[in-house]
Structure formats: structure tokens, C-alpha cells
């Protein structure tokens, strides 16, 4: 292996990579997430209307996340750090990339195992275990909420995600069909002539030139194995 700096491999991951570990996504069932309406559990309006329901919902998601393990796709991304400067931008709120050993993970939509102040969004706390309850307060005395970016809210990590994307030497999309914006728009910040690899059973539509795009129409575990072979062969 050459002693030149590692190429920057930027990865955008989505629900498809977590699905193979047993984490369901709301898109599986017509706008319902584990049987709940998105409006009730993943919007600021839902929180104002019934904070107890929202807290219960995310407590269940946390409990579920504690019982699942990273799959082969997560593990391959961690392994690729031996060869590349791997930077993961994930739409997922679970911690499976971290559990697999990935060092650099930027969560676009927040983190399931964190809470934040309803008074000052910069006050963020780790959640030990799985419970966050009514009456759990920040240091300012306000109720804590899940540190999740809900529908109708700004995505504060978009700016750093765009910066990372613009630095990519290789860009990989895995487990997302590029329909959730603004995350899906990241692909358009990839510099011209930088190779893009898309691992997803549904081949997403990409506007503009697809000359440098390679589609691997497989689920994440299968597709990442194929991609690893390609990357090691082509770029090392």
C-alpha cells in the first residue's frame, strides 16, 4: 500500500442499512412508524399535543435499538477505515455505525440516545439506558425532549455534511433511495468527476450526468461486500 494520504471516502447512509439489523423505518408502512402516525410522534406539533406519547414512542425505539447489532454492511464501513479516510453522514438516528467501530459519524437527523433542552437546543445530554420521562429536565429547568430532527424542523448538521461531501474523493450512497430532503440533495455537492457508488435495491433517479455513477442494486449487506472489492481493486 502506498504511503500517500488516504483518499476521503464519504458515505451517505440511510434506513436500508439499519433495516437489515431489524430496525423498521416509517417508510415501510405508508407513513406509519411502528404503527404510529408520523404527525403524532415525529413533529413539533405532536410533541406539543402529547409529549407523553412522544416520549413513550422513543423509549420503545431505544429499547429496540439496544437489542440489535450492527450487520455486515456496518462492519465493512468500519473495516474500510484501514484503507480510506472514511466519513459517514447518516440519516439514521440509531448508533449502529458507532457500535460497528466507525470513528467519524455525522448524524443528520439527530441521535436516539441523546436528549436536549426544550429551552436551549445546544444543551444536549446522553441518555443512559432507554428511558426519557416527563419531569426529566435540563440544567435550566425545562423538560428534555429527544434529540431528533423532526419533520418541519431545520436540519442543523446539513452545513457540515455539505462541506464533507465537497471534500470527497469517492462518494458512496448506501441504504437510501434519495427521497428524503434535504439529505438527498447532498449528492449534488459531490465535485465533478468524483466517482459515486449507489448501493440500494431501488435505483434512485439522479439528475444530470451519471457518467461517474455506479449503481449496485442490492441490499446493503450484499452490496457493501461487492463495493468493498471494487474500492480495494480500483483505488489502492
- Largest β-sheet summary: 6 strands, parallel
Model regions low in confidence, pLDDT < 50 over at least 5 residues: none
- Strand/helix succession: EHEEHHHHEHEEEEHEEEH
Number of strands: 11
Question: Mean of the pLDDT scores?
Answer: 91
Helix content: 25-40%
Q: What is the CA-based Rg, rounded?
A: 18 Å
β content, as a range?
A: 15-25%
Q: Please state the structural category.
A: alpha/beta
Number of helices: 8
Strand order of the largest sheet: 5-4-1-9-10-11
Broad shape = elongated
Distance between the termini: 7 Å
Keywords:
6-stranded parallel β-sheet, alpha/beta, 236 residues, 8 helices, 20% strand, 3-stranded antiparallel β-sheet
Show the helix and strand layout.
Layout: E1 8-13, H1 15-19, E2 32-33, E3 36-37, H2 38-41, H3 44-49, H4 51-66, H5 72-79, E4 85-90, H6 96-100, E5 105-107, E6 110-117, E7 124-126, E8 144-148, H7 158-167, E9 170-174, E10 196-199, E11 213-216, H8 220-235
Parallel strand pairs: 1-4, 1-9, 4-5, 9-10, 10-11
Antiparallel strand pairs: 2-3, 6-7, 6-8
Helix pairs in contact: 5-8
Characterize the structure shown.
The protein has eight helices and eleven strands. The chain has helices spanning 15-19, 38-41, 44-49, 51-66, 72-79, 96-100, 158-167, 220-235; strands at 8-13, 32-33, 36-37, 85-90, 105-107, 110-117, 124-126, 144-148, 170-174, 196-199, 213-216. The chain has a six-stranded parallel β-sheet with strand order 5-4-1-9-10-11, sandwiched between helices. It has a three-stranded antiparallel β-sheet with strand order 7-6-8, with helices on one face. A two-stranded antiparallel ribbon has the order 2-3. α5 packs parallel to α8. The longest helix is centred in the first third of the chain and has 16 residues, at 51-66.
